[in-house]
């Protein structure tokens, strides 16, 4: 069964911008291709049906999105005044870097590059290719990762 996948912007990020008084929990967003501002239900914004498999969704949830939710909660509790101080650990910094890398890996540019440079991509479905790019992209090391070595978060 094809499921809705948030592609670029995880629900963990979107939930902080929802209108909780709206039954559909809509968010405002800018459509940069049209230059127009719209409202849409957060659970439907930036999703594509069947983009990732259930295993692909689990990978993103466990590897990036759920840990990001914990970090978001820590930051939000500080910003809201619930906690007087915040301690950002080295693990939190690595998580933030992993999230930035995940945005790059999930981009259309990364997907098109993988399809153009892969000798086997044509043998698999788009969903399988998206899942494979997720795992290989997040676990690869190379010149791109050097950008994160000096990144101050």
Produce a short descriptive summary.
This protein is mainly alpha-helical and 153 residues long. The chain has helices at 11-14, 54-79, 90-105, 108-117, 126-139, 143-149; strands at 4-6, 26-31, 36-41, 47-49.
How much helical structure, as a percent, in the residues? 40-55%
Helix/strand order: EHEEEHHHHH
Give the terminus-to-terminus CA distance.
Answer: 39 Å
Q: Name the beta content range.
A: 5-15%
> Helix count?
6
* Number of strand elements: 4
Indicate the structural class. mainly alpha
Largest sheet: 2 strands, antiparallel
List the quaternary state of the chains. Answer: single chain
Radius of gyration, in angstroms, nearest whole number: 17 Å
Strand order of the largest sheet: 1-4
Mean of all residue-level pLDDT scores? 88
Shape: globular
Q: Give the low-pLDDT segments.
A: none
Task: Please describe what this structure looks like.
The chain is globular and about 55 Å long. A two-stranded antiparallel ribbon has the order 1-4. Strand 2 (26-31) and strand 3 form a beta hairpin. The chain is built from 6 helices and 4 strands; from the N terminus they run βαβββααααα. The model has no long low-confidence stretch (mean pLDDT 88). Helix content is 50%, strand content 12%. It has 153 residues and is mainly alpha-helical.
List the helices and strands and how they pair.
Elements: E1 4-6, H1 11-14, E2 26-31, E3 36-41, E4 47-49, H2 54-79, H3 90-105, H4 108-117, H5 126-139, H6 143-149
Antiparallel strand pairs: 1-4, 2-3
Distinctive features:
153 residues; two-stranded antiparallel sheet; mainly alpha; 12% strand; 6 helices
